[in-house]
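hey
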């Protein structure tokens, strides 16, 4: 949230919602410029070396984890969005004085600077305090200690530690997405099943990350030993149970050096000079993020590397596999597989957002360091299995991936969804509509998106649908499906009091909802792309966003401004011809991008992975320098 700004013009004061004002094109530009700014820091000098070369672990740069921290925390993005929005307000509305009604750190930090630069007065009561202040540093420090001490405490507790089978494929999966009810992995189960029938068998699953989705986690969960929490039939072994106390000696050394590292980052004159956002001095907000890199991100990252190393050393696999290859865990896993000379692969498991920094790389990042002998560059998988030509082209152009390191095999998830959709007959559809409270003539849109991405658009959708329903052209309903990684109560508040919106019952799966409803609505969800390929009309709100290429191509409808929501919903829900036209454009768009469903994706992916395992890899490096 940016916040609200009070502006004075001609003696009158009005309030502007900056989140609304700075949505769409401004937010999209801010995301791109924030990514570019973060990427530029790898060249900044810290204690005589570039940031990329200054901090390393067993010879591999820790920059790959620093950039993730800056991207994930969102502080840099918030600064850019606030700065660009404030500049736009002042240019268009030409206020004589401005003030803060409410807002976050970025707004409080920037408003005084904007006013000073443009010669605008500050309204009485405006908070001119600058910087993130001690609370940000304190929170980061507490989180760092909890994660570190919890990791040590788990290893001190008694219990039998599991062992891994050797050879075959070592697949690292998210612990939270193991399905106890079905005894399968939640993201790539079809590929794992197909892979088990190839030369890359047997398959050993190792779970990374918390065993609860992020909305359901509690402070005590990190303290619970993984070997006392079997997952289903025990197929997933928690990674933290495989590393002994001694295996974490290196990461403990990095933990002890965290304040020294923070001082080096904060003490860099070049870093201080680089901390400018849209021409404004952002040092007071950036400095706590740099300390967070040193005290939280680096210690966590090297512990993940140590734990991945312990698993790989014990299993001695022919192939290391994960679908989290671009995030913190994935980079740690890929680094250790490369260090051991074991072929490694990543599997696309969802839509790769065009503004997702995790997949954005410059050409020089893929090259070994010119000054660090053991740094081999970004820990890219030897092979990345992707769904379609859209993803492949994005990784090749925006991610600097070699074309030979990409395999287009199709989406097993889409094929599974397509099979389920085809299997739903008229009777099951009718039963589902009754469960959703839909009469025969009702039209319904199903909202499928993370609450954190929907943000203000969820109440806007509810209000717009209420308006359409009140117009009397026909009963329209909004069905909201909570994301599996979030709890329903997050969504319930936005629909409370609406007669036309309700939460989808947990008993109805996604396929049933798609068949029972007439339109899919989202912000950035892959479901919109799947729907497009299945001949189901889809609408993306909050454009421009990561679905913009599909909106521009005409395969998915888009709403840029909230004022357009009622008319767009009415047209796509109540106009059969408009909906049929969108379906036709969607199918053509899917065909041009190679987004297909022929029931062969899992087998093709397994064959590509097995070929990688059979091909082998080069020898691991013999000697490595000390960390940091």
């Amino acid at each position: 949230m940016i916040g609200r700004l009070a502006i004075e013009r001609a003696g009158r004061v009005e309030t502007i919602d900056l989140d609304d004002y700075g949505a769409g094109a401004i937010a999209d530009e801010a995301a791109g410029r924030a990514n570019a700014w973060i990427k530029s820091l790898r060249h900044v000098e810290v204690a005589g070396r570039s940031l990329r070369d200054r901090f390393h672990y067993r010879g591999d740069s820790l920059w790959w984890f620093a950039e993730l921290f800056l991207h994930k925390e969102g502080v840099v993005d918030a600064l850019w969005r606030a700065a660009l929005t404030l500049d736009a307000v002042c240019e268009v509305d030409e206020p004589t004085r401005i003030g803060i009604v409410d807002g976050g750190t970025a707004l409080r930090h920037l408003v005084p600077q904007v006013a000073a630069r443009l010669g605008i007065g500050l309204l009485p009561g405006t908070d001119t305090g600058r910087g993130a202040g001690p609370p940000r540093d304190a929170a980061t420090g507490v989180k760092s200690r909890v994660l570190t001490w919890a990791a040590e405490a788990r290893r001190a507790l008694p219990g039998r530690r599991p062992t891994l089978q050797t050879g075959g494929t070592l697949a690292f999966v998210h612990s939270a997405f193991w399905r106890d009810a079905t005894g399968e992995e939640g993201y790539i189960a079809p590929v794992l099943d197909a892979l088990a029938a190839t030369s890359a068998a047997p398959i050993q699953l190792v779970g990374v990350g918390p065993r609860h989705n992020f909305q359901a986690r509690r402070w005590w969960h990190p303290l619970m030993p993984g070997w006392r929490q079997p997952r289903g039939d025990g197929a997933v072994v928690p990674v933290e149970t495989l590393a002994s106390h001694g295996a974490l000696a290196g990461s403990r050394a990095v933990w002890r050096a965290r304040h020294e590292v923070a001082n080096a980052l904060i003490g860099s004159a070049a870093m201080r000079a680089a901390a400018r956002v849209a021409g404004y001095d952002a040092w007071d907000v950036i400095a706590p993020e740099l300390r967070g890199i040193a005290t939280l991100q680096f210690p966590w990252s090297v512990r993940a590397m140590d734990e991945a190393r312990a698993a790989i050393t014990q299993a001695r696999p022919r192939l290391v596999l994960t679908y989290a290859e671009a995030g913190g865990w994935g980079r740690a896993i890929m680094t250790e597989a490369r260090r051991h000379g074991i072929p490694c692969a990543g599997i696309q498991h969802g839509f790769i957002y065009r503004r997702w920094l995790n997949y954005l790389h410059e050409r020089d990042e893929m090259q070994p360091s010119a000054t660090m002998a053991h740094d081999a560059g970004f820990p890219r998988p030897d092979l990345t299995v992707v769904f379609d030509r859209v993803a492949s082209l994005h990784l090749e152009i925006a991610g600097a991936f070699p074309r030979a390191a990409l395999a287009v095999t199709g989406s097993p998830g889409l094929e599974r969804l397509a099979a389920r959709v085809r299997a739903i007959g008229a009777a099951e559809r009718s039963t589902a509509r009754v469960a959703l409270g839909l009469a025969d003539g009702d039209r319904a849109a199903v909202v499928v998106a993370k609450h954190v991405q929907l943000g203000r658009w969820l109440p806007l959708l509810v209000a717009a649908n209420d308006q359409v329903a009140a117009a009397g052209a026909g009963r329209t309903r909004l069905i909201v499906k909570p994301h599996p990684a979030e709890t329903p109560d997050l969504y319930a508040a936005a629909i409370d009091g609406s007669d036309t919106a309700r939460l989808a019952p947990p008993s109805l799966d996604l396929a049933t909802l798609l068949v029972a409803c007439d339109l899919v609505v989202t912000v950035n969800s892959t479901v919109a792309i799947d729907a497009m390929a299945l001949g189901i009309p889809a609408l993306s709100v909050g454009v421009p966003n990561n679905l913009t290429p599909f909106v521009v191509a005409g395969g998915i409808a888009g709403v840029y401004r909230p004022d357009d929501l009622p008319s767009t919903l009415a047209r796509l829900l109540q106009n059969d011809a408009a909906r049929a036209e969108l379906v036709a454009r969607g199918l053509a768009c899917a065909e041009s991008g190679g987004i297909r469903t022929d029931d062969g994706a899992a087998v093709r992916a397994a064959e590509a992975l097995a070929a990688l395992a059979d091909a082998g890899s080069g020898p691991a490096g013999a000697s490595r320098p000390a960390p940091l």
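The radius of gyration is 25 Å. Confidence is low (pLDDT under 50) at residues 213-223, 226-233, 618-624.
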